[in-house]
Design goal:
Largest sheet of chain B: 4 strands, mixed
Radius of gyration of chain A: 23 Å
Radius of gyration of chain B: 20 Å
Largest interface: A-B, 51 and 50 residues
CATH superfamily of the largest domain in chain A: Acyl-CoA dehydrogenase/oxidase, N-terminal domain
Shape of chain A: globular
Family (chain B): Belongs to the acyl-CoA dehydrogenase family.
CATH topology of the largest domain in chain A: Butyryl-Coa Dehydrogenase, subunit A, domain 1
Number of helices of chain A: 12
Strand order of the largest sheet of chain B: 1-4-5-8
Helix content of chain B: 40-55%
Order of helices and strands of chain B: HHHHHHEEEEEEEEHEEHHHH
Strand order of the largest sheet of chain A: 1-4-5-8
Number of strands of chain A: 10
Strand content of chain B: 5-15%
Distance between the termini of chain A: 61 Å
Mean pLDDT of chain B: 97
Oligomer: heterodimer
InterPro entries (chain B): Acyl-CoA_Oxase/DH_mid-dom (IPR006091), Acyl-CoA_Oxase/DH_mid-dom_sf (IPR046373), AcylCo_DH-like_C (IPR036250), AcylCo_DH/oxidase_C (IPR009075), AcylCoA_DH/ox_N (IPR013786), AcylCoA_DH/ox_N_sf (IPR037069), AcylCoA_DH/oxidase_NM_dom_sf (IPR009100)
Cofactor (chain B): FAD
CATH topology of the largest domain in chain B: Butyryl-CoA Dehydrogenase, subunit A, domain 3
Shape of chain B: globular
Number of domains of chain A: 3
Mean pLDDT of chain A: 92
Protein name (chain B): Acyl-CoA dehydrogenase
Structural class of chain A: alpha+beta
Keywords (chain B): FAD, Flavoprotein, Oxidoreductase
Number of helices of chain B: 11
Helix content of chain A: 40-55%
Strand content of chain A: 5-15%
Order of helices and strands of chain A: HHHHHHEEEEEEEEHHEEHHHH
CATH class of the largest domain in chain B: Mainly Alpha
CATH architecture of the largest domain in chain A: Orthogonal Bundle
CATH class of the largest domain in chain A: Mainly Alpha
């Protein structure tokens, strides 16, 4: 048992480290390091411009989308090399945030289902960050139950005409392309009537509206489709096979290993280490210590769970199911951590923004936290996944399984 | 990076699992649970023959000379099987204390006897209520004789010898404490069995009246030796707890698959599924923290003190969580003597206290993290 690189891994790490040291935009390092709470903001620069420039630079030198084949703009690296790169990229990895969906989900789906000519056209500029992609799955009527989506695609000659609405689309407002899951047959049971496409987000009839979140910020969008025309050659997979295609996308979403999840613990520990309470330093208070210790072992448990998965990659094995706990644990933990940090501030904890303790760091965390327990699979869906795929428990009884989609009730009560 | 056990170590785990499945069935555990024997003598002998008792003891002292990683995988299986033998007191506490601080003669006398299963050892630290602390040690040592009362002493009623923490000074510092080795079969020692939460591992009160004792380690070094013994034992116990937690989770999962209510498997209800998923989460966090503890223990790393505390807390929580919810999944049957659920519930809650309670280890963890951050 050890944490050491193999000689090949060490060599790869040294090469990556040297290249990053010589090329990374160091002027932003400090700001990026501090942006651990899900939002990356640069004071004197447009984050999108900085992110695109860094991505392009990486692509030109062969450091973009490491795990992709070379002909599509990647490096053809092994999974462990990808992890090592992430470790070495460190805070600059924050700049990859806007590309996560495209690189992690859209790209792999295109690779599996698009025509060869499309792969060669669309994947390299996706890898280099010149084009940004988004994923158009969730709808007002289809969140956790994404197969309940209602956006219609109807065949019209060699094209499809799309009408409907998507929601919770990250980055739609700066995306050039998207992958889109639609309903092409409402007369068959819901999983069987779906079809996947990719489309140009500048197509006529596509309208993007930002959602104002409970936190006040806008990270997501609604996307409306009014008679949007998509050529049939942009279909991904067979007609009616969209559900299976989307599973490829979602599997990729959940297989991101080695990506650090924010728990809020390092921030809370640092805060408590210097905080003075009415009767002494917070870190010497029995109750505070007990809370910290309980969160400390969750944070370390996640860290070493991830190390176990990385070790499996290093040996060329498939990691076990352990990594599926990450988002579930971190999501509610960051919410609890933020709540507790404000509790320690007493009545003054109610003040947010620049006038608050630590410029409102924990207040912002509190307001953002509910989203972390919903996005990318709610806590409840994550527990179902663990129960069914890891523990082998039965799936839910699905009352709509064999019912034609257009016969499924649409209202809870009248 | 290879943050995992080696193939050989995994093979040893499989071997231990197979051996225990055969020799330590729930039926065998129940002989001790029901008070018909103080521990499973046959199993103890078998563990010695398999080389498990001395797996981390050097060959020159009669052991297998493997290491702590090998001991960790065996510990996990001992926990999974809920083995009713004095493994933790003899192997994690007594043997480790000897390995850290014993003289050549002391090691020669006791370690081969431990490895062969002839000697059961224990650590006599506690004196009634309270967590590990020099100020809670009142038993005195003077002129090679001990006077005072220790309780609870794990496996005290069946132990042949004990490592005893004694007060040899009154300065109020850690250096007031020294360790001694006592032959419990000699004069001046009175042993009384105590009923306890987990009858499959006994607890005793031991009264020392001018009991003859020889120093273990240097005078005044007792507390620092004890701290290291407790850290090592915390990691090894964590593996037992991880094994127990996994077994409790499996039992709950299996019952949820077998039991029908309201016309369907109860494991198809989300309330039950989510409870089991949460058990998996805590068991996984505990396993990962324990692996880190194992790494620190096996490499003698400076990180051991922090890693041990984290493993201890995480594994204690996981075992308690899985054991209690396993009963909940079983419903009323889980609360019968006949079902095995309560054996794990008892073991989980007894183990949560044995090396000092959670609040003690929480305190230790924060102190150690602060020290690291200051350095």
């Amino acid at each position: 048992m050890n944490f050491d690189d193999t000689p090949q891994e060490a060599e790869f790490r040294a090469t990556a480290r040297a290249w990053i040291a010589a090329n990374a935009p160091k002027q932003y390092e400090e700001e990026l390091r501090k942006s651990s709470l899900g939002r990356t903001v640069l004071k004197n620069a447009n984050i999108l411009d900085v992110a695109k420039a860094w991505q392009k630079k990486k692509a030109d030198a062969g450091w973009a989308c490491l795990h992709w084949p070379k002909e599509y703009g990647g490096r053809g690296s092994s999974p462990i090399e990808r992890v090592i790169w992430q470790q070495e990229e460190g805070p600059f990895g924050q700049l990859s945030r806007m590309f996560i969906i495209g690189h992690g989900m859209c790209g792999p789906t295109m690779m599996a289902f698009a025509r060869e000519e499309h792969k060669r056209t669309y994947l390299p500029p996706l890898a280099s960050g010149e084009k940004v992609w988004c994923q158009l799955f969730s709808e007002p009527a289809g969140g956790s139950d994404v197969a309940g989506l209602r956006t219609r695609a109807e065949k019209d000659g060699d094209d499809w005409i799309v009408n409907g609405q998507k929601i919770w689309t990250s980055g739609a407002h700066y995306s050039d392309y998207g992958i889109l899951l639609t309903r092409t047959d409402p007369t068959v049971p819901k999983h069987k009537g779906l079809t996947m496409f990719f489309l140009d987000m500048k197509s006529p009839g596509v309208e993007v509206r930002p959602i104002k979140q409970a936190s006040g910020a806008s990270d997501f969008n609604e996307v409306y489709f009014t008679n949007v025309r998509i050529p049939d050659h942009q279909r991904l997979g067979e007609v009616g096979d969209g559900w299976n295609v989307s599973l490829t996308t979602l599997m990729n979403e959940r297989s991101a290993i080695g990506a650090a999840v924010s728990t809020g613990f390092p921030e809370l520990f640092e805060y408590c280490s210097s905080l003075m309470l009415d009767d002494g330093p917070a870190i010497e208070d029995r109750a505070v210590r007990s809370k910290l210790a309980n969160w400390a072992v969750k944070a370390s448990g996640l860290k070493y769970t991830s190390m176990r998965a990385i070790s499996a990659l290093s040996k060329g094995e498939r990691p076990g199911p352990e990594n599926s706990i990450g988002k579930l644990v971190a999501g509610s933990m960051i919410q609890d951590v933020a709540t507790y940090a404000l509790d320690l501030q007493g009545a003054n904890g109610v003040i947010s923004g620049e006038d608050a303790e630590l410029a409102g760091r924990f207040q912002a965390m509190l307001l953002r936290a509910p989203g972390t327990r919903v996005e990318g699979g709610t806590d409840e869906i994550m527990r179902n996944i663990i129960a069914e795929r890891v523990l082998g428990l039965p799936g839910d009884i699905r009352v709509d399984k064999d019912v034609p989609f257009n016969k499924i009730p649409t209202k809870g009560r009248n | 990076m290879n943050f995992d056990f080696s193939d050989d170590q995994k093979q040893l785990r499989d071997q231990a699992r197979k051996f225990l499945a055969e020799k330590c069935s729930p039926k065998a555990v129940r002989v001790v649970l029901d008070g018909k024997a103080p521990y499973d003598r046959e199993l103890w002998k078998g563990l010695a023959e398999m080389g498990f008792l001395g797996v981390a003891i050097p060959e020159e002292f009669g052991g297998a000379g493997a290491g702590h990683l090998e001991l960790c995988v065996i510990a996990e299986e001992m926990g999974r099987a809920n083995a009713p033998v004095p493994f933790s007191s003899t192997v994690y506490l007594a043997a480790e204390a000897l390995l850290i601080a014993g003289s050549e003669a002391q090691k020669k006398k006791w370690l081969p006897a431990i490895a062969s299963g002839e000697a059961i050892g224990t650590l006599a630290l506690f004196e009634g209520k309270g967590n590990p602390s020099p100020k809670n040690v009142k038993l005195t040592a003077a002129n090679g004789a001990l006077n005072g009362v220790k309780k609870p002493v794990p496996d005290g009623a069946i132990a042949d010898f004990a490592v005893v923490a004694a007060r040899t000074g009154s300065s109020g510092r850690d250096s007031d404490i020294s360790l001694f080795l006592v032959d419990l079969k000699a004069g001046g020692v009175e042993v009384k069995s105590l009923t306890n939460l987990d009858p499959t591992r006994g607890q005793a009160e031991i009264t020392f009246k001018d009991a003859k004792a020889e120093p273990l380690g240097s005078a005044g070094e007792g507390w620092s030796i004890l701290t290291e013994v407790l850290d090592r034992a915390a990691v090894l116990c964590a593996f037992e707890q991880v094994g127990g937690a996994d077994r409790a989770l499996e039992m709950g999962r299996d019952y949820a698959l077998d039991r029908i209510a309201f016309g369907r498997q109860i494991g198809s209800f989300q309330a039950v599924k989510h409870m089991l998923a949460d058990m998996y989460v805590s068991a996984t966090l505990a396993r990962s923290n324990s692996y880190y503890g194992a790494w620190a223990l096996s490499t003698n790393a400076a990180e051991l003190s922090e890693a041990a505390a984290a493993a201890r807390i995480s594994a204690t929580q996981a075992f308690q969580h899985c054991a209690k919810n396993n009963i909940q999944v079983h419903g009323g049957m889980g609360f019968t003597w006949e079902f095995d659920c309560h054996m794990y519930y008892r073991r989980a809650n007894a183990m949560a206290l044995g090396l000092g309670s959670l609040s003690y280890w929480e305190d230790q963890l924060i102190d150690r993290m602060r020290k690291k951050n200051a350095a």
